[in-house]
Amino acid sequence: MIKKTLHLALLLVFVSSFTGCKDKAENANTSDAEAAAVSESTSEKFTVSISESTIEWKGFKPTGTHNGTINLDNGVFKTDDGKLQSGTFLIDMNTITVTDLEAGDGKEDLEAHLKGTVEGKENHFFDVAKFPTSAFEITATESLAAGKTRLSGNLAIKGQKHNISFPVTITNDGDQMTIESEPFTIDRTQWGVNYGSKSIFEGLGNKFINDDIELKITIKAKKA
User: Fold this and answer.
1) How many whole angstroms separate alpha carbon 128 and alpha carbon 189?
2) Is residue 12 very low, low, confident or very high in pLDDT (cuts 50, 70, 90)?
3) Which pLDDT value is given to residue 85?
4) How far is CA 144 from CA 11, 32, 34, in A?
5) What pLDDT does residue 24 have?
């Protein structure tokens, strides 16, 4: 009886871990930071529309997932002959929201934990008081099949910068440009976001949080 109970418990842990981790997007290629891309002086300039742009995020743990959004602070892109060449945008980490929980049902607590506004837990995740913004700067673009573009850039979080690359769709409609990524994942521990990581801490059992964070970026920018 004890053996059957143990086997059942192990099976439940395995199933819950699989359920919390499945259906994740492909990992972004990650490497050391590179030199930012530079455009010609004649390049056309586009300014990011903050109200129309967002980053969707999803985190994974054995018992399920949490998801939410983060707003941009500002951004500028430049194009040559209609093709995206360079640009940067800042991410307002104070705008981290959780969208899968209702107010009063853990939403505020999780948002505060992620932001690091809880005393003694400031550095568990993003410590927004110390690091209020994250940043992305384009280092290269590469045309792919089916009208897609591989976008590469340096992502800076908590003072650490690494280069990532992921597929996006870029559309131009008159004076407006839209950059929309496919969902992709990054390993948060590469930016020092280590809380609950079983690759960093031992003895967590099934009380861990996956290292991978899924992101989906949608940016709308208007010609300056």
Assistant:
1) 17
2) very low
3) 94
4) 42, 23, 21
5) 60
Closest CA to 86 of 152, 148, 164, 144: 152
Contact 70, 92 (CB under 8 A): yes
pTM, rounded to two decimals: 0.87
For the chain, domains (ranges, CATH) are 2-223 (2.40.128.110)
What is the per-residue pLDDT across 91-142, written as a single tens digit (0 to 9) for each? 999 999 999 999 999 999 999 999 999 999 999 999 999 999 999 999 999 9
Average pLDDT over residues 46-65: 97
Tokens of 107: 């939403």
Q: State the pLDDT at residue 42.
A: 78
SS (H, E, C) the chain: CHHHHHHHHHHHHHHHHHHHHCCCCEECEEEECCCCCCCCCCCEEEEECHHHCEEEEEEEECCEEEEEEEEEEEEEEEEECCEEEEEEEEEEEEEEEECCCCCCCCHHHHHHHHHCCCCCCCCCCCCCCCCCEEEEEEEEEEECHHHCEEEEEEEEECCEEEEEEEEEEEEEECCEEEEEECCEEEEHHHHCCCCCCCCCCCCCCCCCCCCEEEEEEEEEEEEC
First to last CA, the chain: 72
CB atoms within 10 A of CB 205: 8
